[in-house]
């Protein structure tokens, strides 16, 4: 649905934003998700907030940071590389390992 909206936006506008940049502008959590979403994976749960940055750590990949946006009730995350560039938006699903979830902490803005 969002891809169709983005394509329509490109056709009707003089500004051509890449999809991932456009998503930041249009993603809006529904009222019940405005303060964040509590997600459960296995026996652990974690909360992601719209527009927040997080740090995680695991033995295989080391330290990573990501930003979260919530579109409706769908949390999306984009990992941030060492140069501060945001990667593509990914759905959460089974994206995080238990080790990463246990290490997750919100970063100050």
What does this structure look like?
The chain has one domain (27-107). Helix content is 23%, strand content 35%. By secondary structure, the protein is an alpha+beta fold. Strand 4 and strand 5 (74-80) form a beta hairpin. Strands 6-5-4-3-7 form a five-stranded antiparallel β-sheet. The model has no long low-confidence stretch (mean pLDDT 90).
Ends: how far apart?
30 Å
Order of helices and strands: HHEEEEEEHE
Average pLDDT for all residues: 90
Helix content: 10-25%
By oligomeric state, this entry counts as single chain
- How many domain units? 1
Query: Segments where pLDDT lies below 50 for 5+ residues?
Result: none
| Bulk shape | globular
Number of DSSP strand runs: 7
Tell me what portion of residues adopts beta-strand conformation. 25-35%
Which structural class do the helices and strands define?
Answer: alpha+beta
Widest β-sheet, arrangement of strands = 6-5-4-3-7
In short:
The protein has helices at 2-12, 19-26, 98-103; strands at 37-41, 44-48, 53-58, 62-71, 74-80, 90-91, 105-107. The chain is of the alpha+beta class and 109 residues long.
Describe how the helices and strands are arranged:
Elements: H1 2-12, H2 19-26, E1 37-41, E2 44-48, E3 53-58, E4 62-71, E5 74-80, E6 90-91, H3 98-103, E7 105-107
Antiparallel strand pairs: 1-2, 3-4, 3-7, 4-5, 5-6
